[in-house]
Amino acid sequence: MAVLSDFSFPVVIWMVSGIMSTSAQSCGRPPVAGNRIVGGADATAGEWPWQVDIQKSSAHVCGGSLIAKDWVLSAAHCFPNPSDLSSYIIYVGRYQLNGYNPDQSSHKVSRIVIPDGYVEPHSGLDVALVQLSTPVTWSDYIHPVCLPAPGTLFPSGMVCHVTGWGNVRDNVPLPGVGTLQEVQVPILSENSCQQMYNLNQDEKIDILYDMICAGYQEGGKDSCQGDSGGPLVCQMVNGTWVQAGVVSFGLGCAHRNQPGVYSRLTSYSSFIRNTVPEVQLYGRGNHMWGGSMLVWLGCLTTLLTILFR
Questions:
Q1: What's 78's DSSP letter?
Q2: Could you say which of 65, 228, 248, 267 is catalytic?
Q3: 65, 70, 77, 248: which is the annotated catalytic residue?
Q4: DSSP 8-state code for residue 170
Q5: In this predicted model, what pLDDT tens digit does every residue of 155-213 receive, in sequence order?
Q6: Distance between CA 185 and CA 173 in Å, rounded?
Q7: Is 107 a catalytic residue?
Q8: Which of 69, 164, 172, 189 lies at a CB distance of 3.0 to 4.6 Å from 156, suitable for a disulfide?
Q9: Angle CA 53–56–60, to nearest 5
Q10: What is the pLDDT of residues 75-134, one digit of tens each?
């Protein structure tokens, strides 16, 4: 049997730490820990580093989330003409809509991908993938969110967060410098959400398979106009933030029996991976870490075989 030389053990440690560090830029882990949206509160700077501001003709129109160095996830209805690329600017690392943002960068759009068959939010398919013309630079204030693998569960009652710069009430814009807002809302079962919307006599709403609802039966806390395309994120048991949905639609904002409806991202895993192969998915057993772990174990096994043969 071979014996480790004086320099072999440090080499092992160096190689292992090097492999581990390649996975350090993981999604869903804000480097800055922190602890309008209707009924929400000011977020802390850097608390939601994947949040982006989508502007059209120099005006805020939608939110979105950073999922890779040059890709943003948003809603299809934010882009009524997907071939109109020059009108849009994406701001990452932004905290105040109308204030000073020393950590932000701006990016033009090179491509917008929308699912075939999309018509309008009530009919589903309300997601969009937006490719930036230049990649972002990761920082404490610019960081990707994790997306769910198809089997990831977001059970009824799970408390999640919605963020954005949308209206604070129906037709009432976010005032002042426009600090990013956050609000906690519980996930609702498809059946409960459908029952609530069935109480509305003015407009029939069908909660489809690719939709997920979050909010309160009594209302009071919700996403609103201007939050469209933004993320509904949930913190998993290991502390990782995973995006469950994309702000899609509602009837008014924070009204009783009219919870927010989001595009359910577990329905779009294939669509997203086919367009953005490098995106990190999180699921039961943490598929994202599983791949890195297999690589790590393979490298370690090879190294130990060489050292001990």
A1: G
A2: 228
A3: 77
A4: T
A5: 999 999 999 998 777 777 777 889 999 999 999 999 999 999 999 777 889 999 999 99
A6: 21
A7: no
A8: 189
A9: 45
A10: 999 999 999 999 999 999 999 999 999 999 999 999 999 999 999 999 999 999 999 999
Residues in the chain: 309
CA distance linking residue 279 with residue 294, whole number of Å: 18
Please compute, for residue 143, the number of CA atoms within 13 A of its CA located in the half-sphere on the CB side: 22
Annotated active-site residue 126? The verdict is yes
Q: Residue 275 class from Cβ within 10 Å (0-12 exposed, 13-18 middle, 19+ buried)?
A: middle
Among residues 53, 126, 222, 227, which one is catalytic? Answer: 126
> Do residues 257 and 217 make contact, with C-beta atoms less than 8 angstroms apart?
yes
CA angle 98, 103, 108 (to 5 degrees): 75
Q: Which two tokens stand for residue 149?
A: 């693998």
Q: Which of 117, 138, 162 is nearest to 70 (CA)?
A: 138
Two structure tokens written together for 202? 């003015």
Residue 274 is given by DSSP the state H
Q: Which two tokens stand for residue 183?
A: 């609000």
- Residue 134 CA to residue 261 CA, distance in Å, equals 32
Say how many C-beta atoms besides its own lie within 10 A of residue 260's C-beta: 29
100 contacts 150 by C-beta, under 8 angstroms:
no
Neighbours of 267 (CB within 10 A): 20
